């Protein structure tokens, strides 16, 4: 109801055109009459419903026939005002196929939504064909063209017409699309040349993301991911200190002279503590990349060279009061906007250049390239334009300055350049030679990837000047409007080019002249122009004859700055425009031109004579081409386009080239501390967390190198007092450098800690670990009981399966007699009657066993259960002969025999392992065998156990103990 009623005031409703086409009606009452009145939805718009009416009912007629559609186009699918919207309805006679009734309603085009009577009249009585469509479109323009409403929100200096031309075409496109669907709905055959094809909603795309597994690498979410998604993490504005709040006063014109700042009304406003201006600066009034180029605050009598320049900072007890009072500050400006240069074309015409970045050139000599162009078989020339782009960080530029003792200051700021910010701000505060009193800290930056470099400095420095003067903490944060008007973005570029090539598509020479809009100051423009110049050659050879000149132009727009993918999009756009134009001139696919002119491993040298030793772009291009079935899919696209006049498809492959290296001032150090109380780790490094996950990467490297849990590692806020001289985070290199610095620090710690680790390992091996907590003792005791119960259960199950064969008394006597004979035989062979140690007897027995002499070790004892054994006390030489003795923890039952060392038989037992046997006696003759094992009491025994099966061996279980 509210949407319908406010449409009367010009609201761009999405609902109203749909209701107009559906012949909806509304019912209402007023405060002067209780009678319910009903009018058409169109009459509601035209003022037939009083402003004090209460809408009580909305009715839409139910129709059994007819075709109805609603269309809209906007910047986004959701939460965006429509460029144009429309509702259409036609009733078609099923016999004659003529249109008997029609509705055409258009919104967001003229002043409010309305029907088109002329278009409706043109439709009624006609067929759903091209002739009727053309009459209806003509009717649309007759009714609406004179009332077209231009939308100022899409207009810019570089695009003064905004989206007006595009919006004028949308009613025609909507009506054409409606005709296609109405023909299909009414069974009317569509002309092949005019068919749109089947209108189907695009399904959701599905894909699988696969990671390459590497040793030591685990995919891990950002350590702050849960806090980011729940709003629990803190940003600069969340700094918990009692503070005042500042709101900046900015210039509203592009040029002029600031004659006077009248802050008298603001100073009298509620809650205002002070108005900070250039007069309050104790040091240099310079906040830009180039000293003296960009003042922090424009002083009275100073020149204005762009809109959004800082003039003053209103400080109050709340943000709301500071913002309200800032509107009371009056600026007296002379010659406002006189001679302002607000576009790149204006700057080129006026030859307005940035002095320190006026020209950047790379490649072969220009005369050499011009000669190659003259000799080329074919030459074309062209021009292209790359528009600029504003950054839109979720967290705007913000800072919190907190005074400290000795005239120091802690500056919390959302930045990518903490040390750069510290150096500039220290100069503004007059801390010459005392810059260490100023500490810059950054917890995280809520987006930016470029604008949080140099453009964070003016806001932070303004907060610092205010805090220094008032000796109170001061917070400053730009709102979205200020951010958009004061902070520049991606540089706009214009490029003219001439390219030579042969009829087979080989490029022979290229000369490019480009102009970049740097804005009002240098900022990072000099570096960016070099990036653009190096990006344009890309991966192509250009016949070895390539030259580019990039001119840095100065305008009266906010200074453009670093934005993610610094300069490369502009350079690659220029490159691929040239490639596409060559392909068009030759009538060849662009991919063919790209493949033919791509550098190879043998000639991978840049125009500035740098050898690319690790070049493999050509091989990667072909692999992707093959894996993606590019040729087959290109043929499918061509077939589809040949069959469809209006709907078209496309497919393309474009190689990219990016110069990645250890760039100027992007390096950093790391400090890793291990806490002795619990082994937890604190890490400091100079990189800034801007959403790329640098803290998580560093923490993973530290945990991996030190061998600790990731949860034990904490990465502290970036601080210039811990890791100084880190100029900025950027260049796609800082995370890697920070990780390497942390890794090297951890390696030093490992070397320092190794003697202590060795001592603790040895101590742990000798002593049972002592738990510090009662919970640990109880847990271990519980686990021990569970293990013992499980073991007893397993023993009972195994014992139940073992059925010992009864042994007769005669068999026991035979076993004892055999042992006695073997002992006598051993004594006679020794040649003397003397006592022989059990270990020597063991060695002799093993030797005799290998000679099949069957010697015994010692006089055996026969147990009542039929277990005959002899004992040996010495255990130290137990591994002699390559055999290793193992403890048999429980009574054993032999179940199988396996090959052992030196070809002997080793019996594998359920409750222990026999590690040696002295050979098998013939089970048919002797019915027993002899074995060697170590018992739970630590004694080594040689035993003869009666055999019941020639393959399984003995199945006799000795008594426990």
TrEMBL record:
> Per its UniProt record, what InterPro entries does this chain match?
Ald_Oxase/Xan_DH_a/b, Ald_Oxase/Xan_DH_a/b_sf, Ald_Oxase/xanthine_DH-like, AldOxase/xan_DH_MoCoBD1, AldOxase/xan_DH_MoCoBD2, AldOxase/xan_DH_Mopterin-bd_sf, CO_DH_flav_C, CO_DH_flav_C_dom_sf
Which stretches does UniProt call biased (Basic and acidic residues)?
A: 782-800
Q: Which residues bind substrate?
A: 566
As cofactor, the record names: Mo-molybdopterin; FAD
Q: Which residues bind FAD?
A: 14, 55, 72
Q: Does the keyword Metal-binding apply?
A: yes
Give the note describing cofactor binding and stoichiometry. Answer: Binds 1 Mo-molybdopterin (Mo-MPT) cofactor per subunit.
- Write the record's keywords in alphabetical order, separated by commas: FAD, Flavoprotein, Metal-binding, Molybdenum, Oxidoreductase
By its UniProt entry, which Gene3D superfamilies does this protein fall under? Aldehyde oxidase/xanthine dehydrogenase, a/b hammerhead, Aldehyde oxidase/xanthine dehydrogenase, molybdopterin binding domain, CO dehydrogenase flavoprotein, C-terminal domain
Q: Which SMART domains match?
A: Ald_Xan_dh_C, CO_deh_flav_C
Residues annotated as domain CO dehydrogenase flavoprotein C-terminal: 68-182
- Which molecular-function annotation in GO is an example for this chain? oxidoreductase activity
Domain Aldehyde oxidase/xanthine dehydrogenase a/b hammerhead residue range list? 230-337
Where do the segments described as Disordered lie?
782-808
**Keyword Oxidoreductase among record annotations:** yes
Per UniProt, where does Mo-molybdopterin bind? 416, 449, 564, 731
- UniProt protein name: Aldehyde oxidase/xanthine dehydrogenase a/b hammerhead domain-containing protein
Please report the organism this UniProt entry assigns to the protein: Alexandrium catenella
């Amino acid at each position: 109801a509210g949407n319908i009623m406010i449409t009367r005031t010009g609201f761009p409703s999405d609902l109203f055109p749909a209701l107009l086409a559906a012949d909806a009606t509304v019912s209402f009452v007023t405060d002067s009459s209780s009678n319910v009145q009903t009018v058409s939805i169109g009459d509601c718009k035209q003022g037939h419903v009083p402003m004090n009416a209460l809408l009580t009912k909305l009715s839409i007629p139910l129709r059994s026939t007819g075709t109805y559609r609603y269309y809209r186009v906007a910047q986004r699918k959701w939460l965006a005002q429509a460029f144009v919207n429309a509702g259409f309805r036609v009733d078609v006679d099923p016999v004659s196929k003529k249109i008997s009734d029609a509705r055409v309603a258009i919104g967001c085009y003229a002043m409010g939504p309305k029907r088109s009577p002329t278009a409706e009249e043109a439709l009624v009585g006609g067929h759903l064909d091209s002739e009727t469509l053309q009459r209806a479109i003509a009717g649309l323009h007759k009714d609406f063209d004179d009332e077209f409403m231009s939308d100022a929100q899409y207009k810019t200096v570089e695009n003064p017409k905004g989206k007006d031309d595009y919006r004028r075409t949308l009613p025609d496109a909507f009506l054409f699309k409606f005709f296609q669907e109405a023909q299909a709905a009414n069974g009317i055959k569509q002309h092949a040349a005019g068919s749109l094809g089947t209108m189907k909603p695009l399904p959701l795309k599905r894909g699988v993301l696969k990671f390459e597994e590497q040793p030591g690498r685990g995919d891990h979410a950002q350590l702050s991911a849960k806090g980011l998604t729940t709003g629990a993490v803190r940003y600069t504005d969340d700094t918990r200190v009692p503070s005042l709040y500042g709101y900046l006063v900015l210039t509203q014109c592009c040029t002029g002279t600031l004659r006077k700042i009248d802050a008298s009304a603001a100073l009298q406003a509620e809650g205002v503590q002070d108005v900070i201006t250039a007069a309050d600066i104790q040091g240099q009034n310079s906040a830009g990349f180039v000293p003296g180029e960009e003042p922090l605050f424009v002083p009275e009598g100073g020149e204005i060279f762009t809109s959004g320049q800082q003039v003053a900072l209103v400080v109050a007890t709340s943000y709301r009061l500071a913002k309200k009072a800032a509107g009371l500050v009056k600026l007296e400006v002379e010659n406002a906007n006189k001679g302002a240069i607000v576009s790149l074309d204006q700057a080129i015409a006026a030859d307005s250049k940035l002095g320190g970045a006026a020209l950047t050139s790379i490649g072969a000599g220009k005369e050499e390239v011009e000669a190659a162009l003259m000799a080329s078989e074919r030459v074309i020339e062209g021009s292209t334009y790359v528009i600029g782009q504003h950054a839109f960080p979720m967290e705007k530029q913000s800072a919190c300055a907190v005074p400290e003792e000795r005239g120091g200051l802690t500056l919390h700021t959302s930045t990518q350049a903490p040390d750069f910010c510290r150096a500039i701000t220290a100069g503004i505060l007059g801390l010459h030679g005392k810059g260490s009193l100023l500490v810059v800290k950054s917890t995280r930056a809520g987006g930016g990837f470029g604008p949080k470099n140099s453009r964070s400095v003016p806001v932070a420095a303004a907060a610092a000047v205010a805090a220094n003067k008032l000796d109170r903490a001061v917070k400053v944060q730009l709102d979205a409007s200020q951010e958009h008007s004061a902070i520049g973005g991606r540089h706009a570029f214009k490029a003219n080019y001439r390219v030579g090539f042969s009829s087979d598509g080989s490029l022979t020479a290229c000369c490019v002249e480009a102009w970049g809009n740097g804005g009002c100051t240098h900022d990072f423009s000099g570096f960016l122009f070099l990036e653009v110049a190096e990006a344009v050659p890309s991966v192509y050879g250009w016949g070895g004859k390539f030259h580019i000149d990039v001119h840095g132009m100065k305008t009266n727009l906010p200074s453009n700055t670093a934005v993610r993918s610094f300069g490369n999009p502009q350079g690659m756009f220029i490159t691929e425009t040239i490639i596409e134009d060559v392909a068009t001139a030759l009538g060849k696919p662009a991919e063919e031109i790209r493949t033919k002119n791509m550098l190879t491993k043998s000639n991978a040298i840049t125009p500035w004579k740098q050898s690319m030793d690790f070049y493999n772009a050509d091989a990667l291009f072909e692999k992707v081409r093959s894996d993606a079935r590019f040729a087959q899919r290109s043929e499918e696209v061509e077939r589809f386009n040949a069959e469809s006049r209006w709907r078209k498809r496309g497919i393309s492959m474009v190689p990219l080239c990016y110069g990645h290296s250890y760039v100027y001032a992007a390096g950093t150090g790391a400090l890793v501390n291990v806490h002795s109380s619990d082994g937890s780790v604190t890490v400091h490094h100079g990189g800034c967390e801007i959403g790329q996950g640098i803290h998580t990467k560093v923490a993973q490297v530290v945990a991996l190198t030190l061998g600790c849990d990731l949860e034990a590692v904490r990465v502290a806020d970036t601080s210039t007092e811990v890791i100084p001289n880190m100029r900025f985070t950027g260049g796609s290199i800082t995370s890697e450098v920070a990780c390497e610095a942390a890794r090297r620090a951890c390696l030093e710690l490992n070397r320092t800690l190794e003697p202590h680790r060795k001592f603790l390992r040895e101590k742990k091996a000798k002593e049972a670990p002592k738990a510090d907590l009662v919970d640990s003792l109880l847990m271990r005791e519980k686990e021990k009981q569970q293990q013992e119960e499980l073991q007893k259960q397993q023993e009972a199950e195994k014992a139940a399966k073992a059925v010992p064969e009864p042994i007769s008394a005669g068999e026991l006597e035979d076993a004892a007699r055999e042992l006695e004979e073997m002992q006598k035989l051993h004594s006679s062979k020794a040649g003397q009657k003397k006592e022989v140690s059990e270990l020597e007897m063991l060695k002799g027995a093993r030797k005799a066993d290998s000679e099949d002499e069957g010697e015994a070790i010692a006089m055996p004892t026969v147990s009542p259960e039929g277990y005959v054994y002899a004992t040996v006390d010495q255990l130290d030489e137990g591994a002699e002969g390559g055999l290793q003795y193992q403890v048999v923890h429980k009574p054993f039952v032999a179940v199988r025999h396996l090959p052992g060392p030196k070809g002997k038989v080793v019996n594998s037992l359920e409750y222990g392992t026999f590690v040696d046997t002295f050979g098998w006696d013939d089970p048919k003759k002797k019915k027993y065998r002899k074995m060697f094992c170590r018992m739970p009491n630590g004694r080594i025994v040689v035993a003869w156990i009666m055999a019941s099966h020639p393959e399984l061996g003995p199945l006799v279980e000795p008594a426990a103990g």
